[in-house]
Each structure stands twice: as structure tokens, then as C-alpha cells.
Amino acid sequence: MFAFSFNHIALSVKNVNESFQFYQKVFQFKEIENTASNSKTRWLSIHEGKQLHLIPRPTAEIKTNKAVHFALATSTLAAFIIHLKKLNIDYSDWINSPDKDYIRKDGIRQVYFQDPDGYWIEVNDNV
């Protein structure tokens, strides 16, 4: 039997510096060294050794939908929603109701929003 743990997520982005600034501003992720190459790919530390890699692909056509997303959890979801509002970042619930959070059947609250390239991000209180 194999055992796995989550290591990182990598996103193709049109403007690596714009995306980098977005993730730092919204999540306050810290930049870490790109130890894999001398490329312009920038790495961010999510938490507990997990990473976000932003790979510059200026000519890439990025298509996604809300069902393709990554999720982060926080015990301070209400404060995070206030933070999104202060940053003028539009968010919605699963069914696209603007400025609404959603309570799943299992009681978990969540919001969805997009990064500069259109990738969907869910933030929930499932901690």
C-alpha cells in the first residue's frame, strides 16, 4: 500500500508577478526559494510545508470552471470574508450568489472567488 501526503499545487499564470502579489495580499503567503530551477516560477509557502507554485505561461489559454478549484480552510472565515471585502474581491457561494457564503449539508461554511487568471479558490471553515 502506498502512503501519500499533499505537497504542492502548481498553476500556469499569465503574469507571475501579478499572481504572486494577489496570493500574498489575499492569503499572506510567504515566498520561498524555487529550489527546482532558475526559471521565473515563484513559490509560496501555504502552511505546514505545503506550497503554491506559480509558473509563468504568458500565452497560455486558461480555462476553468468552479468545479475545478482548490480549497483552503480557516477557523476565521468571517474575518477572512471581511478581508476580501476590504480588498474589493468579489466572492460568491457555490451557486454564484454574489457576496454570499454557503453552508453545506454537513454544516461547513464556504465562499468562492477567482484569482487574476480565473482559477477558482474555495475558502471554508472545515478546520
Number of helical elements:
2
Question: How large is the radius of gyration?
Answer: 15 Å
Largest sheet: 4 strands, mixed
Uncertain parts: none
Number of DSSP E strands: 8
Strand content is: 25-35%
Order of helices and strands: EHEEEEHEEE
CATH topology of the largest domain: 2,3-Dihydroxybiphenyl 1,2-Dioxygenase, domain 1
CATH superfamily name of the largest domain? 2,3-Dihydroxybiphenyl 1,2-Dioxygenase, domain 1
Could you estimate the helical fraction of the residues in percent?
10-25%
Structural class: alpha/beta
User: Rough shape?
Assistant: globular
What is the overall pLDDT average? 96
Secondary-structure arrangement, i.e. CATH architecture of the largest domain: Roll
Protein name: Metallothiol transferase FosB
EC number: 2.5.1.-
Keywords: Transferase
How would you summarize this macromolecular structure in one to three sentences?
The protein is α/β, with parallel strands linked by helices. It contains 2 helices and 8 strands. Its EC number is 2.5.1.-.
Structure characterization notes:
- It comes from Mesonia oceanica.
- The chain is α/β, with parallel strands linked by helices and 127 residues long.
- It has 2 domains: 8-56, 2,3-Dihydroxybiphenyl 1,2-Dioxygenase, domain 1, CATH 3.10.180; 69-124, 2,3-Dihydroxybiphenyl 1,2-Dioxygenase, domain 1 (Roll).
- The chain is built from 2 helices and 8 strands, in the order βαββββαβββ.
- The chain has helices spanning 16-27, 77-86; strands at 8-13, 30-32, 42-47, 50-56, 69-73, 102-103, 109-114, 120-124.
- The strands form 2 sheets. A 4-stranded mixed beta sheet has the order 1-4-3-2, covered by helices on one side.
- A hairpin with a 2-residue loop joins strand 3 and strand 4.
- The chain is globular and about 45 Å long.
